[in-house]
Amino acid sequence: MPVYIKTPDNRWIPYPMTPATGSSLKDATFGNYTKTVLANPDGVERGTALRQWLVQPTRPIIHDAAVYWTYIQTAIAPSPFAQDPGDSPSADDETSNQQLKEAADIYYSNNQFIVRLELLDNFLYDTNGAMRIPGLVVSLIRDLTVVITTGGLDKISEKEGEEMVKQLQYLFGCKNLEKLAIEICGGGDMAGTDWSTQEIIRIIAPVVKGLKSQFNTRLSISKVSPDGASRNITQYWSLSDGTAKSSFDSCTATSDQIMRVQTYRWANPKQRSLLSGALF
Fold it and tell me: Where on the tree of life does the source sit, at the highest rank (predicted)?
């Protein structure tokens, strides 16, 4: 039987994702499941039920395609968002806010999220105020994948490059991240030697260097093809000895060694003037 939920404008629509529930709640609808969750505001059962509903065990949540948090708000704590601007919060409002905060803690701390680069600030800091999250996601998120799409053969403009760097810099505020992945998605060579991937690496190299310093082994950078194939290129931000540079200078370097030298120069402003364009 399909499950329906009531939207903020009082329409009933099919719920697009079946909540992950235990056997005792397998036949629950969105409505009576929510009643079950709210029935024990201080009990252990409430926390367990919230976790069963809010934590997606098998697939990451893609932020730009997800509207589920709006439904979570409406189901768990609708009252704070129905009051008129300027009204003083009531005791019920404060209770609802606390319930919503509990849900946000579980939802954002226990799921994996995939977010396009251009939406990162909105996801982490709710910059347009649409999510109305009590406590910013930036302090809750544990597992995050940032997707950067390559732009073909066109050179990235200075303005576009600055915006890309600005978005990535928001990640420095994610103090509790346990896993951070940056995926450069597009066609071309999986080693990242194609022009469009080189353009992305050229722009993001300095800020990724800083992220690597902060997150260390928790950070990975990959090249991902349109068919989903992936290759880890995190090592391009590691120039641990002089082997790569010596091979590069003597024209005997492998493509991996060339990429390490090139990324190193792009990542270090004092070196970038030595190599302003791609090597391939």
Answer: Eukaryota
144 in helix, strand or coil?
strand
The residue out of 62, 89, 107 marking a domain boundary is 107
Segment 168-205, tens digit of pLDDT: 999 999 999 999 999 999 988 898 889 899 999 999 99
The structure's pTM equals 0.71
Contacts 24+ apart (CB under 8 A), 51-55: 51/106, 51/110, 52/19, 52/20, 52/21, 52/22, 52/25, 53/19, 53/20, 53/21, 54/103, 54/106, 54/107, 54/110, 54/111, 55/20, 55/106, 55/107, 55/110, 55/111
Residue 128 covered by a domain: no
CB 248 within 8 A of CB 235: no
Closest CA to 72 of 102, 40, 43, 41: 102
Q: Kindly state whether residues 68 and 177 are assigned to the same domain.
A: no
Answer whether residue 206 shows pLDDT above 50.
yes
Instruction: Give me the residues paired with residue 219 across strands.
Output: 180
Residue 91: give the domain boundaries: 1-107
> How many domains does the structure of the chain reveal?
2
Percent of the chain with pLDDT over 70: 60
Boundary-marking domain end, from 107, 124, 150: 107
d(CA 214, CA 172): 8
Clarify whether residues 97 and 164 are in a common domain: no
- Shared domain check, 280 and 157: yes
